[in-house]
């Protein structure tokens, strides 16, 4: 049953993101990389991994949080809702809203967002130099996620994931220094 849910989440991500690309690859490669990053850091929680596969689906496609809840339950839908940006806002406002939202994230949302940023920045390592604004926002996001993790007593697995994100951010900050 567990494998079936992952397959269904991946199938939905592939279908919903059809035609979209990520660094020249089909977009679904990105949510798979986010889920894989979580698994590589020892995160095995079903809801967190399913949410990683679906983390951009509400933000970037016509799929709604209600659709996610109907197929994967309220826990997954809640995590996806936590990490979903409001695309009606300009990018700078979305970035500010994300920092504010991160102060209230659940441990699962911290994990998904940290892995998402980690994957995005590591993709940049092979493709392009991120802008100074992107690196600065990544630093602020990391710091907000780290603070929230401390507040809620995030365990060693979550701390290690944040350490990986921090090393990647520092790498880009060093490129700019």
- The CATH topology is Hypothetical protein af1432
Total E-strand runs: 2
Radius of gyration: 15 Å
Strand content is under 5%
CATH H level, superfamily name? Hypothetical protein af1432
Low-pLDDT segments, ≥5 res: none
Q: What is the number of helices?
A: 10
Based on secondary structure, the structural category is: mainly alpha
How many separate domains make up the residues?
A: 1
- Cα shape: globular
Secondary-structure element string: HEEHHHHHHHHH
In whole angstroms, the N-to-C terminal distance is: 50 Å
The CATH architecture assignment turns out to be: Orthogonal Bundle
- Quick one: biggest sheet? 2 strands, antiparallel
Descriptive notes:
The chain is mostly helical. It has one domain (2-176): Hypothetical protein af1432. The chain has helices at 2-16, 29-40, 46-54, 57-60, 65-72, 74-83, 91-102, 107-127, 132-152, 156-176; strands spanning 21-22, 25-26. Strands 1-2 form a two-stranded antiparallel ribbon. The protein starts with a helix and ends with a helix.
């Amino acid at each position: 049953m567990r494998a079936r849910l992952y397959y269904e989440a991946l199938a939905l991500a592939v279908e919903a993101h059809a035609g979209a690309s990520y660094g020249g690859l089909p977009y679904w490669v990105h949510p798979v990389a986010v889920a894989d990053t979580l698994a590589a850091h020892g995160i095995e929680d079903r809801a967190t991994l399913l949410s990683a596969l679906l983390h951009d689906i509400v933000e970037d496609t016509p799929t709604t949080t209600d659709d996610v809840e109907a197929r994967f339950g309220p826990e997954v839908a809640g995590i996806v809702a936590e990490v979903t940006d409001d695309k009606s806002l300009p990018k700078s406002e979305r970035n500010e809203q994300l920092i504010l939202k991160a102060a209230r994230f659940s441990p699962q949302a911290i994990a998904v967002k940290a892995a998402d940023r980690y994957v995005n920045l590591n993709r940049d390592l092979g493709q392009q130099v991120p802008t100074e604004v992107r690196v600065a926002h990544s630093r602020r996001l990391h710091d907000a996620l780290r603070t929230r993790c401390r507040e809620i007593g995030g365990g060693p697995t979550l701390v290690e994931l944040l350490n990986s994100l921090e090393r990647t951010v520092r790498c880009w900050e060093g490129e700019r220094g």
